[in-house]
User: What shape does this take?
Amino acid sequence: MDYTIVVALEMVRAVAWLVLLASGLAIIFGMMRIINFAHGEFLMLGGYTVVISTGHGVNEWIAMLVLAPIVVGIFGVLVERLVIQRLYGRILDSLLATWGLSMLMIGGVTMIFGNSVTGVATPLGGMSIGAYQVPRYNFVLIFAAIALLLAIWAVLKFTKAGLIARATMQNPDMSEALGIPTRWVYMATFGIGSAITGFAGALLAPLTGVVPTMGVNFIAQSFITVITGGASVITGTLSAATLLGSISQGMTFLTGPVYGDAALLLAALVLLRLLPQGITGRIFKKSL
Amino acid sequence: MEKPVTRDPGFYVMVAIGLAVMFIAPVMLDLFTIMQITQYVVLSVFALSLGYIWGFGGILSFGQAAFFGLGAYTFAVASINMGSTTIPMVLAFVIPTLFGAALGYFMFYGRLSDVYLGVVTLVVALIFWKLINHTAGPEYSIGSARLGGFNGIPSIPTLHVPGDPSAWLDPGQMFQVFMGFLLVIYVALRFLIASDFGRVSISIRENETRSSLLGYDVRKHKVIVFAIGGGIAGIAGAMWATYQAFIDPNSVSMEMSAKALVWVMAGGVGTLVGPIIGCILLQWLTLQLGTVDVVNSIAVLGAIMMVLVLALPKGIVPTARSLLLGGYILWKRNQGQAISGKVVKE
Assistant: This one.
């Protein structure tokens, strides 16, 4: 019984993990059709923000929940102004440019901080379920993922900004004709997507440690989740994360973490063969 | 419009240059330099594989290193087990080709769009990299070859004369054989591109819908192009393995895939010479930068990639070609004017 609870909890955590990883990417991709290859490095930047600010005596929760999103968000806006804005509509070029950015960031951070893992203490410690020890931090992750999805949903659905963003997403020319400054919408969207990515990176830092090349470990999972999910931000991310998270976590329990990743990829490949537009390309079409 | 290969003077010039390098370099240069440029030759083959599928099939693979690594590991495992290098070289072509066909089946028959294609190929390479990195223990061995995880496979046999495993090639001969490989692959690709099949794949690159409306099976063509590219990358991987006598998961890394992309981008998409020039130029540059400690070579590679996309999206060879052509036309026109001016005077 206890074991079942632990396994179920781990599965939910795996889903939450994928939701956190992919949300920022899904916003940027769903709205702007820009696939940000430096996504993993944005996560890394969030992690480093936490390491540096806690090193200077900032409270770790403030560093994670406030500083990391702000820093990475501002960085995202800068990147959009300098690079991305020249590449709208040139999907492949934007992929190549952001890949270049990703290597530039890895190299740059390595030059500044060195190529070693900096650990971040996991807050909150553990608790026991029956005979098993479970880190309390898992609940933080799950809660953060739920809160994040709810917040994105509420903003897109109920606010003026969300309405404008959705309009731009659906038909940029018409929105422009109606007087919406789509350039600024794009910039803001990229910034918000980056901020969410930074937030996710900060939350993941205690679990993985922070190292310049850490992005590589997450980029596959993030992209596969977003692509399998399809164009709609919330339903897509949630459904893909649920499906892939439980498959890979189930596989991990049965065999080990390596095959968990491989199972995730295989499941995604088969799914894309069946639903080339992603889950929300066929099912839940009208959802957000 | 591609000219028939046999009527293109550029083709003969390229082959002549290749042959000249192949026979003169080992005589002229010292051993160390020969071994250095052998590296460029191997990586040029890798660059060609991506240059072909991207430039002449419109398939942008972000994980070309998956095939490179697969070829390298196939060669390493097979040659260690067999004690010979001839059949492993063939296997290093066949297995990545089959893998490319299988992966291509999923991607192209699933009608994945460009972006998804790029990401899926990248993810395949990443997963491959992760899997190999986790094979460190002695339980992961194929025959007598231990996969070695992130430590890689050491003491891979050097290439030898087919049928006689005791006749190792010395570095000079190895360079000549590899130059031969590069030339054969270049010539084969030129003829393939000029053939009916090649023309159809170019038309698919230009307009997929129109090609399929004209009755060509777009998916089948793309799978074949992709598989051929995979096979060539596999050969390059095998050459890399036997050249270094060592192979590790870095050969499958994202950096390796990115390098191939940068070479092709820098040299020019849609040419075969471009990727080779891009490869040699940038490898030489990274080698020079590697001696400078302050600058991180990955950062430089990334910066080059960004600058290329923003400033020189067409690449060196097409840009140079259009500049030369433009210059030639201007020169012609000026001459024409000069002549007509004379006529008026008279």
